[in-house]
Amino acid sequence: MSGWICDGIAKDGKNYPDLGGAHEPYENYSLDCEICGLPKGSEKPSSKIGLSKILSKPILGIFTVIIILLAVGSVAYFSGLIGGKRHLRTYEEALASGEEALSIVRTHTSPEELEQAQKQLNLAISKLSQIPPKAAIYVDAEAKMNSYDSLSLQIANKISNFELCAVEPKPDDCLF
User: Fold this and answer.
1) What span, in angstroms and rounded, lies between the C-alpha atoms of 94 and 101?
2) How far is CA 148 from CA 70, 86, 144, 162, 164, in A?
3) What is the pLDDT of residue 167?
């Protein structure tokens, strides 16, 4: 067995109750120090323990920063403070549905087509209502929503008129 030096102080990070105690460096050839009883190996720092202690604080710090950034980002995103592109995309989708409804209204030939236009307007209104008041595009979305509500009412009246005029004899107030 090769010799090893013990000075009575454990450097491997482990606790040895009732063993050890600082003493002059002593060369040992057995498994335990002949002076203090510390086992062979206790004189060497454990690289595993040392490395984990060295890395644990930076890793913990990085992990904490990531958690904070995720939390702040989530709150901001869902409150409408950021994610303007998301709201702009919703607004543009709503406008596309609204434009499709307007196109149907301009060229309709039947009450069924007006009902399809009504569905497109309801879809547009539903999308616009998803935009939160804090979003930059909210004022425009609210104005469009009011416009679509008004058009939806006009379409409902026209559909009623179609239904009213479908009966015989036709009422005097029938438009066509």
Assistant:
1) 11
2) 37, 21, 6, 21, 24
3) 57
Residue with tokens 């104005």: 143
Longest dimension (CA), the chain: 122
Sign of the CA dihedral running 24, 27, 32, 34: negative
Determine the Cα–Cα distance for residues 17 and 85; give it in Å rounded to an integer: 64
Give the whole-angstrom CA distance, residue 98 versus residue 124.
Answer: 6
111-136: burial string, b at 16+ Cβ within 10 Å, e else: beebebbbebbebbbebbeebeeebe
Q: Over 90: is that where the pLDDT of 143 sits?
A: yes
Q: Residues 75-124: pLDDT tens digits?
A: 665 555 555 578 899 999 999 999 999 998 889 888 888 899 999 999 99
**Tokens coding 131:** 């935009």
**Residue 176 pLDDT more than 50?**
no
Q: 58-80 burial by CB neighbour count: b if 16+ within 10 A, else e? A: eeeeeeeeeeeeeeeeeeeeeeb
List, for residues 43-58, the tens digit of each pLDDT value. Answer: 887 555 445 555 566 7
pLDDT of the residue at 48: 53
Q: Which amino acid would we find at residue 101?
A: A
Distance, CA of 8 to CA of 21 (rounded, Å) = 5
